[in-house]
Amino acid sequence: MFAVRSLRFRIAVAFIVGALAVAGTVAGTTYYLVSKTLTKQRNQAVLVSMINRFHALQNYLTSLPSNGPAYTIDDIVGKLQAQATDVIVIGPQAQASSNGAITMDLVPADLRAAVHRGQVGYETIGSGQRRLVMGSPIPGVPRFEAYFFYRLAQLDQTLALLRKILIVVVGAAAAFAGAAGFELAQRTIRPLRLAADAARSVAGGNLDTRLEERGEDELGQLARAFNQMTTALEDRITRERRFVADASHELRTPLTALKTSIDYLADRSGDLPAKLRGPMALAADEVRSFQRLVDDLLELTRVEAGGVEVAMEDIDLRDFATQVVRRRAPETSVHIDGEEGLIVHTDKMRLERVVGNLLENAVFHGGGRDVHIILAAEDGIARITVADEGPGIDPEQLPRIFERFWRGDTARRRDGRVGSGLGLAIARENAAVIGAELGVASEIGVGTRFEVTLPRGSEER
């Protein structure tokens, strides 16, 4: 099955509508022409029959002896009546009918007026059981009119059968068109769906995703253009990662020497003049920040490039959370809630990079308020939630918080300071390495909640 709004559905519907339009037009035209032809043939046969009746009447009248009894209106009716035909004869002073149920009330007024003018005419009456009414003055019998009623049951049955056949043909054409449209849509949409899946895969970081190139048509050209795009994108990102890695690595040596010198001077700041102590402390802080930025860039580059190893082990999440708090937020009030003995099988170092960075982010942006770590497990997965009570994140900026060097707005800055903008990006990449998912929810004025969802391990726990 497919969605009503999908392109496949619309293509199939277009085929069905087109088939209905064409088949309906052909069927309608066929029915009209056949109906018109059969009706014309029936009218000609009726006219011939009426003429034959008139000839029989004339032969009857001429055969009567001149001194014999005069004919009656009933005699005229009897001579004009044929099998399956009813007739009404109207004379100057009388009228007679071959069937008591057939009266002049059934004769249309327009037909009677035409016959009064000496013309021959016919009309069709009735709906369910139609009749053809043909009227004419009687030749050789002045001032007499005859109206013949011919049943059209056989013609109606033929046309009804034709309608059924045409309806079946139109329905079959629509069904065939729908099946053909669906099959064509499947063949057409499948490459587009694969391209959409590939695009999502590339957006998720799988830069080696490629499409199969087939044919020289537009879909083949699309596949080749997509592959060229992903190849160029992969090459560019690879060059950028290599540049960042090389630059960060080259910066570490002089930065380490600079930090050693600054630390040496900072430790002996008492020997320096008073006017140099402030700049020295500032320089020491900036060098430490710079060194951490370089370390974060190297870490992020290694993780994104897949150049990290995973060491799986069993971890008690409550003990793990306590250790992370002790190392990452020793001076902040952090509440740990969760059951005891919650064990997961994962890489401890990678998980600490994730939870530790989230905890530092919560402390940094929490405005000095308490931070909560909530541990839970269900259906083979574990959840680690890190929540702060800070100002929250603007909903428009929320989708960008895992981007590199994204620092948010001034509302989430503390004491005029900002972070490097790499902590959450590093957390997301390390989460992906251990098969965890990282989500976020935030409300202005209430706070922000980051949730890490990871499998507990293949063993039953």
Topology:
Blueprint: H1 7-63, H2 73-80, E1 85-90, E2 95-97, H3 109-116, E3 121-125, E4 131-137, E5 145-151, H4 153-203, H5 218-267, H6 274-304, E6 312-316, H7 317-328, E7 334-337, E8 343-347, H8 348-365, E9 371-378, E10 381-387, H9 423-433, E11 437-443, E12 447-455
Parallel strand pairs: 7-9
Antiparallel strand pairs: 1-2, 1-5, 3-4, 4-5, 6-8, 9-10, 10-12, 11-12
Description:
- β9 and β10 form a beta hairpin.
- The protein is an alpha+beta fold and about 450 residues long.
- Mean pLDDT is about 80; it is low at about 410-415.
- It starts with 6 loop residues before the first helix and ends in a 6-residue tail after the last strand.
- The protein is rod-shaped.
- It folds into 3 domains: about 5-160, Beta-Lactamase, CATH 3.30.450.20; about 220-305, Helix Hairpins, CATH 1.10.287.130; about 310-455, Heat Shock Protein 90, CATH 3.30.565.
- The strands form 3 sheets. The protein has a 5-stranded antiparallel sheet with strand order 2-1-5-4-3. Strands 7-9-10-12-11 form a 5-stranded mixed sheet, covered by helices on one side. The chain has a two-stranded antiparallel sheet with strand order 6-8.
- It is built from 9 helices and 12 strands.
- α4 packs parallel to α5 (about 220-265) and α8 (about 350-365) runs antiparallel to α9 (about 425-435).
| Shape by Cα distribution | rod-shaped
The strand line-up of the biggest sheet is: 2-1-5-4-3
Q: Assign the CATH architecture of the largest domain.
A: 2-Layer Sandwich
Arithmetic mean of pLDDT: 80
First-to-last CA distance: 39 Å
Class inferred from helices and paired strands: alpha+beta
Order of helices and strands: HHEEHEEEHHHEHEEHEEHEE
Helix amount: 40-55%
CATH superfamily membership of the largest domain, which one? PAS domain
Rg calculated over all Cα atoms: 48 Å
